[in-house]
């Protein structure tokens, strides 16, 4: 099959991790005889250096003309440390999500048995944890009207949600719950916020259409604590934009590293696949960034294309790399592999593994050699 993929490496570690995903996707294309065409474009601070905007029209056009977008990361300390900067790399990502109508950001979180002791959380509390966070992505406080008073002494960010914005992501979250353990937790702050009360009302009413799903509610402050105390209670979490951003970074501690957490940003027409982490500027060019979050995002892209077997192979290759400790230093302190070496290893697993379809029985770890 033929697909055009827009590749937006961005800033910091963005280019080095994205390069590994492209490598993996090329190996998939070769093995399964697909044709993937990669169209690279600038975004974030990298685009600002040349175009003075973090999302040039040419980049947006490439994204809209592609079947999917593979996004790296954006952000640069020179803007992070300058609160008065009028244009910021992050605006490029936000505009891209808005322009492409990517209202649902899907962030799976799980504990890997092999990495259970890498997490600072107690093994017995996290073993078996497996959830998916549905984060609303194009509304709420991120996109409400913003202002600063003339004297610079006060500022405002408006948080607005409509029933329609809530319903469209809630449908997706309910449907995901139906395919999983049939539990949906709405995380909000309905004891304080009017927007959260609209979320509760809307989701409660929608629940009548999904009678096989158990709906419960948690306030965000309690949810943040429950995520650490007892993450196994969660199946599907549905939440608004900012709560989802914060809760998913927190949840990454369960898996052992934020460098493992992938995501899919979905709309009615377009889709983008992005790790949940940022541009980790301290690691830029050092070869220490974990490329797996980006590579698993690419696997979500393959699923989105309907290439289920291919996506499974990528995920299995990642499992093998974790089993064999072919990992970057965030999860392998003793004998760590570089960003590129992890990518090379996954590429070779994808190219060389013998038996397809992949399943647990024919995954023979003993036969794998580590490069
Ligand atoms: N989607 C995005 O592009 C995105 C997301 C978050 C932050 N940002 C931007 O990134 C910049 C840095 O932000 P930050 O430091 O708060 O967050 P960050 O996610 O870049 O890094 C936070 C910490 O997470 C760990 N980490 C992140 N990615 C990793 C990887 N691939 N492998 C191993 N460890 C990894 C590192 O310990 C790092 O210090 C800022 O400019 C911010 O705005 C962008
Ligand atoms: C960089 C920033 C705008 C972004 C967000 O808050 O959505 C990031 O933290 C993320 O999680 O993708
Ligand atoms: Mg974030």
UniProtKB/TrEMBL annotation:
It is an enzyme of class 1 (oxidoreductase). Signal peptide: none annotated. GO terms for molecular function: 3-isopropylmalate dehydrogenase activity. Its EC number is 1.1.1.85. It is found in: Cytoplasm. The keyword Cytoplasm applies. PROSITE patterns: IDH_IMDH (PS00470). Pathway: Amino-acid biosynthesis; L-leucine biosynthesis; L-leucine from 3-methyl-2-oxobutanoate: step 3/4. Mg(2+) binds at residues 221, 245, 249. Binds 1 Mg(2+) or Mn(2+) ion per subunit. Its cofactor is Mg(2+); Mn(2+). The record marks 142, 189 as: Important for catalysis. Pfam families: Iso_dh. It catalyses: (2R,3S)-3-isopropylmalate + NAD(+) = 4-methyl-2-oxopentanoate + CO2 + NADH. Keywords: Amino-acid biosynthesis, Branched-chain amino acid biosynthesis, Cytoplasm, Leucine biosynthesis, Magnesium, Manganese, Metal-binding, NAD, Oxidoreductase. Homodimer. Belongs to the isocitrate and isopropylmalate dehydrogenases family. LeuB type 1 subfamily. This is 3-isopropylmalate dehydrogenase.
């Amino acid at each position: 099959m033929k697909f055009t993929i827009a590749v937006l490496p961005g800033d910091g570690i963005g280019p080095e991790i994205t390069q590994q995903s492209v490598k993996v996707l090329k190996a998939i294309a070769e093995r399964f005889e697909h044709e993937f065409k990669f169209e690279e474009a600038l975004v974030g601070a990298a685009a600002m250096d040349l175009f003075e905007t973090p999302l040039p029209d040419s980049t947006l056009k490439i994204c809209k003309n592609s079947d999917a977008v593979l996004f790296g990361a954006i952000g640069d300390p020179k803007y992070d440390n300058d609160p008065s900067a009028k244009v910021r790399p992050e605006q490029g990502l936000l505009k891209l999500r808005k322009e492409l109508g990517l209202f649902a950001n899907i962030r799976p979180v799980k504990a890997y048995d092999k990495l259970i002791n890498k997490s600072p959380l107690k093994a017995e509390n996290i073993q078996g944890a497996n959830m998916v966070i549905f984060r609303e992505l194009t509304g709420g406080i991120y996109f409400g009207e913003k202002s600063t008073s003339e004297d610079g002494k006060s500022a405002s960010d408006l948080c607005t949600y409509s029933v329609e914005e809530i319903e469209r992501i809630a449908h997706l979250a309910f449907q995901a719950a139906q395919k999983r353990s049939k539990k949906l937790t709405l995380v909000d702050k309905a004891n304080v916020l009017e927007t959260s009360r609209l979320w509760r009302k809307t989701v409660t009413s929608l629940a009548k259409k999904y009678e096989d799903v158990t709906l419960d509610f948690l306030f965000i402050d309690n949810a943040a604590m429950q995520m650490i105390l007892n993450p196994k209670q969660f199946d599907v979490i549905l939440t608004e934009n900012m709560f989802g951003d914060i809760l998913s970074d927190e949840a990454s501690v369960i898996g052992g590293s934020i460098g493992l957490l992938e995501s899919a940003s979905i709309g009615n027409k377009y889709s983008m696949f992005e790790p949940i982490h940022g541009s980790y500027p301290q690691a830029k060019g050092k070869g220490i960034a974990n490329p797996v979050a980006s590579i698993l995002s690419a696997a979500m892209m393959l699923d989105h294309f309907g290439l289920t077997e291919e996506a499974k192979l990528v995920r299995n290759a990642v499992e093998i790399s974790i089993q064999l400790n072919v990992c970057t230093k965030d999860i392998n302190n003793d004998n760590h592999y570089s960003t590129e070496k992890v990518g090379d290893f996954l590429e070779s697993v994808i190219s060389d593994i013998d038996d397809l379809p992949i399943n647990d029985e024919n995954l023979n770890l003993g036969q794998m050699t580590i490069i």
